[in-house]
Amino acid sequence: MTSENTTTLPARGIPADPDAPVLELRSDISVDLVDHSASDLSVVRAARVSTVGDDAQYETKGDGYVAGLIDYLMKSRHGSPFEHNYLTFLITAPIFTVRHLMRHRTWSFNEESARYRELRPVFYVPDADRLLRQEGKPGHYTYVAGDGDDHQLVTEASAAVYAKAYQEYTGMLQAGIAREIARMVLPVATYSSVYATCNSRALMHFLSLRTARPDATYPSHPQREIEIVAEQMENSLQKLMPLTHAAYEAHGRVSP
């Protein structure tokens, strides 16, 4: 999780009264592993069924054998044995980050719906560690430190827009406009929650694209917010499937 900054402030442009909405500005992005069936041994059993048949389900070979076979599978890019498991995460992040996640089409997603519930005035702003300027051409740029007032500018400008958008959103709801129509004025910085399920092969592919690792065979340059999601997911993979993760690292962070 990134810095747990949470700020509340009156929504500017809305009359000051006890019922006026208060914006909650957050910079944290959370990823919780809520369910899983993932282990290194499951990879070995899936691979071994091709040579020993249903006896593979009883395989309990030592870590040395498991590590060696997983390394071979990763190096040779025999990917299907890494698909017989699952990890389910609950992610709470701004909508634009959730949309980055949903680009990965082999995953399964269920997101909270603004058609069926009224959204709270909770919006994303970068924390003080977030670099806000970029240099270079599209696809080949780097983030750099900017002026000392950058974060204040982004926060104040964002808060003003969020306040006006939420004012219009609640105004439409109070006038009887359907939620599915009223939601269209809300910005992509509005927080959303989504269940996301994948197997370890799909997760490794996700990590290869959504983490900035110069030592990777194919370095990637993701937006920082989706990288925060990826880093937390990678921690779960490393804990649940340490031999798989080690082989993934050893072979350039390329999904098999």
Give a summary of the structure in a few sentences.
The active site is at residue 210. This protein has helices spanning 40-52, 63-76, 95-101, 150-174, 179-182, 200-210, 224-240, 242-250; strands spanning 6-10, 22-26, 30-37, 86-94, 108-111, 122-124, 133-135, 142-144, 191-198.
Helix content estimate: 25-40%
Integer-rounded radius of gyration: 22 Å
Low-confidence stretches: 9-17
Widest sheet: strand order?
3-4-9-5
Q: Which architecture of the largest domain per CATH?
A: 2-Layer Sandwich
State the secondary-structure class.
alpha+beta
Q: Strand-residue fraction?
A: 15-25%
Topology:
Blueprint: E1 6-10, E2 22-26, E3 30-37, H1 40-52, H2 63-76, E4 86-94, H3 95-101, E5 108-111, E6 122-124, E7 133-135, E8 142-144, H4 150-174, H5 179-182, E9 191-198, H6 200-210, H7 224-240, H8 242-250
Parallel strand pairs: 2-6
Antiparallel strand pairs: 1-2, 3-4, 4-9, 5-9, 7-8
Pathway: Pyrimidine metabolism; dTTP biosynthesis
GO molecular function: thymidylate synthase (FAD) activity
Binding site for FAD: 80, 103-105, 111, 199-201, 205
Overview of this structure, please?
There is one protein chain. This protein has two domains: 6-33 and 88-193, Gyrase A, domain 2; 39-84 and 199-250, no CATH class. It contains eight helices and nine strands. It has helices spanning 40-52, 63-76, 95-101, 150-174, 179-182, 200-210, 224-240, 242-250, and strands spanning 6-10, 22-26, 30-37, 86-94, 108-111, 122-124, 133-135, 142-144, 191-198. It has a four-stranded antiparallel β-sheet. It has a three-stranded mixed β-sheet with strand order 1-2-6, covered by helices on one side. Strands 7-8 form a two-stranded antiparallel ribbon. Helix 2 packs across helix 8 (242-250), helix 6 packs antiparallel against helix 7 (224-240) and helix 7 packs across helix 8. It starts with 5 loop residues before the first strand and ends in a 6-residue tail after the last helix. The relative contact order is 0.20. Mean pLDDT is 89; it is low at 9-17. GO terms for molecular function: thymidylate synthase (FAD) activity. FAD binds at residues 80, 103-105, 111, 199-201, 205. Pathway: Pyrimidine metabolism; dTTP biosynthesis.
